[in-house]
Write a structure and sequence with these properties.
Its cofactor is FAD. This protein is of the alpha+beta class. Helices cover about 30% and strands about 15% of the residues.
Length: about 450
């Protein structure tokens, strides 16, 4: 094999694409501009660095679409998901990881692979020849973004993605807060105590909302528009939609009992999730924000238990770039106007670490098959991977295309099952059973891996 596969971007999608292709005998070059060219959100030059949450969300592969995506990626030997399990932290039914250990492991495994090399030079143009995968994510550089815009002939689409703050554990007042996962979810005591909970009564909640609404916010630059993805809304945007929005969202008080006052039901609860294996850092769940730094500290210290909070990182906001994939990409994730180029990850219009990794997995296998002349069956639409790729390459309405998490609404209905909430459990199990069969058949129909490294 004399030709190389060039992958631009060493995040979740790029790392997964490189692993899948390299394990099929392809020589891979990962072009990751960090640390030579920095972004405001990244802190290192590591591959697979997590810049927002440290959670891969639900690991339930029978009743949850993202958990099903986890299962499919594990069955396919996915680098991202297997490494996540190796560095997981207690998080109830979710898959959360020690972010530093996770990215260090991803970096080490790719550097150790005999078919992979890493370049830290920035790529600013779309090449006319060779095999390429662009997985530059939501922080695509300005120069490359301009090149994409010139090639596609359309304006880049963008929304704003916000980052949640991280608090030092030893600064949290545990005489007011307590450890508990909602509904004591988890198989071990550690899992059942994976979250720190800070309770609020009605007066405290109302004061918090008032402070949130009055706080100084980050201003947008001229020409920018704030089109948020609903799964990652800043808390102040949620609060502007109604005073009760937060307590029915990330601050909902359900499934929890305060051991300091077991007979008093909190009006609202702020949850923090462990962010590293040592348990020294916790991130505030669902608290993405565009408040200015000084305002953040003041507002968050009104939360009971966080009066003296010390922050390892305050929240932030960044521009998230993605393609109008239904019009620009074919069903092999290739750019229609330059079919030597594939796109993968969040830039294609999927949202979330898991979904980005899944698109990297598919693009890596597709590129490897094309380069070796191997037969790659069509990704089954009834799998979670298939539902996603079908959505972004043709199933979505191009005029209203927005980033999408995997969800059962993307799956074709199963005949004979009733709709509505009462039939949901049986329906979800039918979706996941069907998906597993389809995915297993798809994997089995592919040619054996030519080369692998651990």
């Amino acid at each position: 094999m004399t030709q190389e596969l060039h992958i631009v971007g060493g995040g979740m999608a790029g790392s997964e694409a490189a692993w899948q292709a390299a394990n099929r005998g392809i020589s891979v070059v990962i072009h990751e501009m960090r640390p030579k060219v920095e972004t405001f959100a990244h802190k290192t030059g590591d591959l697979g660095e997590m810049v927002c949450s440290n959670s891969f969300r639900s690991d339930d592969h029978e009743q949850n679409a993202v958990g099903l995506l986890h299962w499919e990626m594990r069955e396919a030997g996915g680098l991202i998901i297997t490494t996540a399990h190796q560095h997981r932290l207690p998080a109830g039914g979710a898959l959360a990881v020690d972010r530093d250990a996770f990215s260090a492991a991803i970096t080490a495994r790719l550097h150790a692979h005999p078919n992979v090399r890493v370049s830290h030079e920035e790529v600013t143009e779309l090449p006319d020849d060779g095999y390429w995968i662009f997985a530059t994510g939501p922080l695509t550089s300005a120069a490359l973004g301009q090149a994409i815009q010139r090639e596609t002939g359309t304006d880049r689409l963008a929304f704003f993605d916000a980052i949640a703050p991280i608090v030092y554990f030893d600064s949290i007042d545990m005489s007011k807060a307590w450890l508990q996962s909602r509904y004591d979810k988890g198989e071990t005591e550690e899992e059942q105590r994976a979250y720190i909970n800070c309770p609020m009564d009605k007066a405290q909640y109302d004061a918090f909302i008032d402070a949130l609404l009055a706080a100084d916010k980050t201003e947008f630059h001229e020409g920018e528009t704030a089109g948020y993805f609903d799964g990652c809304l800043p808390i102040e945007v949620m609060s502007e939609r109604g005073r009760e929005t937060l307590r029915h969202g990330p601050m909902k008080p359900v499934g929890l009992t305060n051991p300091h006052a077991p007979d008093v039901k909190p009006w609202a609860v702020v949850q923090l999730r462990r962010d590293n294996a040592l348990g020294t850092l916790y991130n505030i769940v669902g608290f993405q924000t565009k408040m200015k730094y000084g305002a953040q500290a003041d507002v968050f210290r009104t939360i009971p238990g966080l009066e003296n909070a010390s922050f390892a990182r305050l929240g932030g906001i960044h521009r998230n770039t993605f393609l109008n994939s239904p019009t620009l990409l074919d069903d092999q994730m290739r750019l229609r106007s330059k079919p030597n180029i594939r796109f993968a990850g969040q830039v294609t219009g999927v949202e979330g670490y898991v979904e980005s990794s899944a698109m990297g997995l598919l693009s890596g296998r597709m590129a490897a098959a094309e380069m070796t002349g191997a037969s790659l069956p069509t990704v089954p639409q009834d799998s979670a991977h298939g539902a996603l790729i079908y959505h972004i390459t043709g199933g979505a309405e191009a005029k209203t295309f927005q980033p999408m998490n995997v969800n059962f609404g993307l799956f074709r209905p199963v005949d004979g099952l009733k709709g509505g909430r009462r039939g949901r459990k049986d329906r979800y199990k039918a979706y996941t059973d069907r998906a597993k069969d389809a995915w297993s058949d798809w994997l089995a129909a592919q040619e054996p891996i030519q080369s692998a490294a651990e």
